[in-house]
Amino acid sequence: MHKKPSMPPAGEAILAGDLEAMRRMAEDGSLLFRKGKTVELRRNIPTMVKLDGKEITTYSDAFGFALSHDQTEIVKMLIDYHLVDLGPKSDALYMAIRRNNFALLDYMLDHGGQFGREERDITRLLLNLSDVWNEDCPAMLDRLGLPLRERGGTALCHAASDNHRAVVTYLLGAGVDVNSQNDGQGTPVLRAAAEGHTEMVRFLVERGADLTITNEYGYRPYTAARVNGHMKTAQYIQSIEPAVTEAEQDALFARYHVPAEMRDYFKTGPLRLEFPEEKELGWVRLFAYTDVAEISYRGQRLLSLVEDSEDFDVMLLWEPESQKVWFLDLEHDIFHAVACWEDFIRTPGYYINRAVMWEFD
Q1: Are strands 334-339 and 324-329 parallel, antiparallel or unpaired?
Q2: The predicted structure's pLDDT at residue 293
Q3: Helices 153-161 and 165-173, axial angle in degrees (round to 10)
Q4: How far apart are the C-alpha atoms of 79 and 84, rounded to whole Å?
Q5: Is the pTM of this model over 0.85?
Q6: Which SS3 state, helix, strand or coil, does residue 168 take?
Q7: Cβ contacts of residue 189 below 8 Å, gap of 6+?
Q8: Which of 129, 191, 121 is closest to 150 using CA atoms?
């Protein structure tokens, strides 16, 4: 049996709410850890927590311990003594947000607290605020003067995906583009559609969201909703999106020099290809003819062919110059020719299962 760690004087003072004792320790430096040029609060105050049914001991510094025990006056005193890092790389301000303590956050900002101004910093801030959003958040964000219009797109995509209407409303009001892209994962409306948030989709469309913009897989919002099983959302989008006519799709296929037999196959099917005898992948479903979309990879324009599959994020693409079906593994940056359409469709299970194992002719 492990001996319970002893509580240091700072922990005892915090638990007792003894502000004067904490002030004395702040002044004599006993709260600090010094190693070379590094000076920071000592992480030596134990807390017992349960994890997977077992009790373990974690250690925090005086700031974190006081904050977790709602000793706000002690927290403020530590800030007053400049013992808390309030810089953009610190977690201190986020700790106040996670505890929904906006009065303390204001105090931190009044004493020089700063959030980073890069896109990743803005995204992190908005993700943290989304879970505790209240009527004070817009004014606090306005006060920060962050470049939301230029760098808030990723945060908007996350807020739409998580169905945080108030956050989405604020970001759009701050000038963030309703059609912002998020590293190939799609626009806010596509992210909302993929999660089945029909009312969020409606809200974004009313504010100018484009239902024709695709993600890195060639999905537009309609196909993203459908692939993820959100048929109510898919049906709503289908009822309002501009329909792609067969004539328009014929012109697209012609531009990509798609052979007639391949074009006719996508029109007549079957689009679900099954190969239960294969070990790795038992089926894929191709896009319906008018859902086949253009995507860009390595500066090349390609047609995305696969809507869904059994296990893998299988991407099969039509590459017009080689006149072949290609396989793309985005995670590992594997892009390789598979076969001409005639050979591929004769034994699709053979080619697809070899491709997912990175075996090519």
Answers
A1: antiparallel
A2: 87
A3: 160
A4: 5
A5: no
A6: helix
A7: 160, 178, 179, 201, 204, 205, 209, 210, 211, 221
A8: 121
Question: pLDDT tens digit string along 267-277?
Answer: 998 999 999 99
For helices 231-240 and 198-206, give the axis angle rounded to 10 degrees: 20
**Backbone angles phi and psi of 293, in degrees to 5:** -125, 160
For residue 100, how many C-alpha atoms fall within 13 Å in the half-sphere facing its CB? 6
Contact between 351 and 360 under an 8 Å Cβ cutoff? The reply is no
Cis omega before residue 46 (within 30°)? no
The C-alpha angle with vertex 44 and arms to 40 and 45, in degrees rounded to 5, equals 120
What is the domain partition of the chain in residue ranges? 1-84, 255-356
What is the identity of the amino acid at 148? L
DSSP letters of 9-69?
HHHHHHHHT-HHHHHHHHHHTTTEEEETTEEEE---EEEEEEETTEEEEEEE-HHHHHHHT
Tokens of residue 32, six digits: 């600090």
Residue-wise pLDDT for 137-185, tens only, equals: 999 999 999 999 999 999 999 999 999 999 999 999 999 999 999 877 8
